[in-house]
Design a protein that fits this description.
Radius of gyration: 16 Å
Largest sheet: 5 strands, parallel
Helix content: 40-55%
CATH topology: Rossmann fold
CATH class: Alpha Beta
Strand order of the largest sheet: 3-4-2-5-6
Number of domains: 1
Order of helices and strands: EEHEHHEHEHHHEHE
Strand content: 5-15%
Number of strands: 7
Distance between the termini: 8 Å
Amino acid sequence: MTADRICVVGCSGAGKSTFGRRCAALGYAFLELDGVFHQAGWRKLPDDEARARIGAFLDAHDRWVVDGNYARFRDLLWTRADTIVWLDPGRWTVSLGVARRSLGRLIRREELWNGNRERWSEVFSLDPERSVIAWAWTRFPLYRQEYAREEHAPEWSHLRWARLRTRREADALLARSTAATGLALTV
């Protein structure tokens, strides 16, 4: 069984964007929702404009992967998807990964999206609205509860779910997939 229209979800730092980019190498069009929503200067794109951009992307491609946890776009995305890949490693794995990633971005002055970069003062803030590290730590249990509930919700019964709890499981799924066959699910 393969997937053509995939939404990748999970806590910040779970590996959604990395997984999505690796799917792109298999021939999927890839869209990172953070790159749509966070415009230059960290300006948030209004929801109606974001929905239009997301919809245009979905309409333009037969085979796609979208990563992100934006519940306000779920109706647009999940009604068109056939598969949800839920990356769900443990809380410490996610938290350490986010910290390592943020520090690397700071040191390299790496751009995230649309000219935006992480700042030292934000990374080490305890405010989840400012720090992705604090966000990942505080949101982890909430995302886990939310996706466990959504996996069994009747409105999403058309979706196949692949819950991957380790990087090794994600790697194995991608390793058995090819551009010709797509993401080879065994759920």
